[in-house]
Amino acid sequence: MENLLFTKNRKRLWDKLEEKSITLMFAGQAPYKSGDETYAFTPNRNFYYLTGINREKIVLMLVKIRGKVEETLFIEKNDPFMARWIGAKISEDEVKEISGIENIKFIEKFEETFASILDREKIKDLCLDLERQEFHISTTSSQRFAKAALERYPYLRIKNVYHQIADLRVIKSEEEIGLIREAIDITDKGIKSLMENAKVGMKEYQLEAYFNFTLKSSGVTDYAFKTIAASGKNATILHYVENNSELEEGKLILFDLGAQYKYYNADISRTFPINGKFTERQKQVYNVVLRAQEAVVAIARPGIMFSVLNEAAKKVLVCGCIELGLIKEASELPKYYFHGVSHYLGLDTHDVGSRDVELKPGMILTNEPGLYIEEENIGIRIEDNLLITESGCENLSKQIIKTVEEIEKFMEK
């Protein structure tokens, strides 16, 4: 991916930054696991959005003074001894090529440089990514730095730049859309492998392994999220992840899964019969969910509120559940459908951005209605990824087989 993407992302942020401000973004660090082991490192997504760098312990500094923004990246020095054990650190030339940032310093100079700029330029605002989803989650590098900076410079105004970056990330560039298309194409291959290899008597995790193999064979190093492989009644649990039950004759299996390609994600759900043939009841329920999905596609376009998508899906699901004999009135729907039909998709699977907005061109959303009938051991969710265009929407995952007829024909082979 050319550094032009990350350069453009930073320039979009520049206009939102205050005069006489420093903005700091931290790549993060792999958390401790056990013994001498850490969990796998993955970069802070806002840091990655602005730099394209996927190495830990790196800091981006943006200083806005006199209407211009100075960009600096602080990286670790290479240690030849440790390089023999864990590999070399990223070089200055590599960082410049990936990010498009020319001013590179070593991390040992970070605090000295920060202090010097504060004093010399009379900086007023320190802007940090202070995202916090829950009260008790671990503090981040940005949150710890905010506390330390205020102790030393109590006159600073700490500002949260998270929401400004999130607003930028909601609208995807052509380059980002291309990466998500690639993630979806790889996911498609994995889903075909699941349908080709499904057999009664397998464990859910054994079937899941075919998807994993396909992704690894395609050069994918990570998943969009932990795969849901839920057969029978397990599929009525929205985020079932044990994946250890046996696949039984006459049951369906619901897969919610996705490849992550260069940190951009696909998020697809498909439900199919383990033996390759839907029962009549399964077919009836499946087609109600499919009609709800089609209703969302029909109205998804610029200018409508995000929330309208879910209302369109619910309207179809209510009618369908009445036809199926599951409910008698709309107020009963939450027994069988209890989640929203859409979320943003991008660098995060549940991507950032406000949902209390009108849809705009460049947004990428999921379209995932479902019905979960525990008493019948039927859980069905069908999920595609929609790009909002100038006049409507494009289903980016339209090539992934989906109808009852397509699934049965494919599995019959």
Give a written overview of the molecule:
Helix 1 (4-14) packs across helix 2 (45-51), helix 8 crosses helix 9 (204-217) and helix 10 runs antiparallel to helix 11 (306-323). The strands form six sheets. The protein has a six-stranded mixed sheet with strand order 6-5-4-1-7-8, with helices on both faces. The protein has a three-stranded antiparallel sheet with strand order 9-12-13. It has a three-stranded antiparallel sheet with strand order 10-11-14. With 413 residues, it is an alpha+beta fold. Helix 6 (141-152) links the parallel strand 7 and strand 8 (157-160). The protein has helices spanning 4-14, 45-51, 80-86, 92-99, 110-121, 141-152, 162-170, 174-197, 204-217, 280-299, 306-323, 404-412, and strands at 21-26, 32-34, 37-38, 59-65, 68-75, 104-106, 125-128, 157-160, 222-223, 228-231, 252-257, 259-261, 264-265, 268-273, 364-367, 370-373, 378-381, 384-388, 393-395. The mean pLDDT is 96.
Tell me the total number of β-strands: 19
% residues in beta strands: 15-25%
Helix segment tally: 12
Instruction: Report how far the terminal alpha carbons are from each other.
Output: 38 Å
Q: What general form does the structure show?
A: globular
What is this structure's SSE topology?
Elements: H1 4-14, E1 21-26, E2 32-34, E3 37-38, H2 45-51, E4 59-65, E5 68-75, H3 80-86, H4 92-99, E6 104-106, H5 110-121, E7 125-128, H6 141-152, E8 157-160, H7 162-170, H8 174-197, H9 204-217, E9 222-223, E10 228-231, E11 252-257, E12 259-261, E13 264-265, E14 268-273, H10 280-299, H11 306-323, E15 364-367, E16 370-373, E17 378-381, E18 384-388, E19 393-395, H12 404-412
Helix pairs in contact: 1-2, 8-9, 10-11
